[in-house]
Design brief:
- The chain has 204 residues and is of the alpha/beta class.
- It has one domain (12-199): Protein tyrosine phosphatase superfamily (Protein-Tyrosine Phosphatase, Chain A), CATH 3.90.190.
- 36% of the residues lie in helices and 14% in strands.
- The protein has 6 helices and 5 strands.
- α3 (95-108) packs across α4, α4 (135-147) packs across α5 and α4 (135-147) crosses α6 (179-203).
- This is Protein phosphatase.
């Protein structure tokens, strides 16, 4: 199957306001959004969840570069979480399960009051991949369906909402997200429901 023509979309798209239980807004974007600090700051984004195995961004300041050949390391100017997905076949079935809990954990995580944890502030969340049209759409649709079933009772309804909010053109819906990723989040949703139904038993 050939790729669809390029369609313009915003660098950053608001997908869901006031996530229940966290009172933050959820965004999707591509490489342009995640690599533009002023844009992130304008939308009070404090947390990034990167879904792409083939894209990273340097959030560490130049003042933290090492002098002995090592790359820069240390805390970035935002909290950064990584889920390395392939945009197509090649992902383990459980990776979207991990992604759901990664996003949920990033929203609810708390930090010790220590200098080694300088980024403790709460703020809005950006889920990104290279273009913000397939991997990030899949993860956010899965998350909305499971977290807000009264608004998104099916994965299809969640995907439809994300496509509209992200301003994805109907001519590219056949690959936004990729069908193999839709199948993956269908399986992930079933696995997560099973985990949640049995988590009290596992603790006992």
């Amino acid at each position: 199957m050939t790729s669809s023509p390029h369609y313009e979309r915003p660098h950053l798209s608001l997908i869901q306001k006031n996530l229940p239980g966290w009172d933050v807004d959820l965004y999707i974007g591509g490489k342009e959004a995640v690599s533009t600090p002023d844009l992130l700051d304008a939308h009070d984004i404090k947390v990034i969840v990167n879904c792409a195995v083939n894209f990273d961004v340097n959030l560490v300041g130049d003042d933290q570069k090492a002098e002995d050949g090592r790359v820069a390391s240390g805390p970035g100017f935002l909290r950064y979480y990584k889920l390395g997905l392939v945009d197509g076949p090649g992902n383990a079935d459980t990776m979207f399960v991990a992604g759901y809990y990664l996003l949920r954990g990033a929203l609810g995580q708390t930090f010790p009051d220590k200098p080694s944890y300088p980024r403790r502030e709460k703020g809005n969340v950006l889920v990104n991949c290279r273009a913000g049209r397939s991997r990030s759409v899949s993860l956010v649709a899965l998350f909305l369906h499971l977290e807000m079933p009264e608004l998104y009772p099916t994965l299809a309804s969640a995907i439809a909402h994300v496509r509209e909010a992200r301003q994805l053109h109907p001519d590219e819906w056949f690959e936004t997200p990729k069908p193999v990723l839709i199948h993956a989040i269908e399986r992930a949703a079933d696995m997560i429901r099973l985990i949640e139904a049995n988590k009290d038993r596992a603790v006992a």
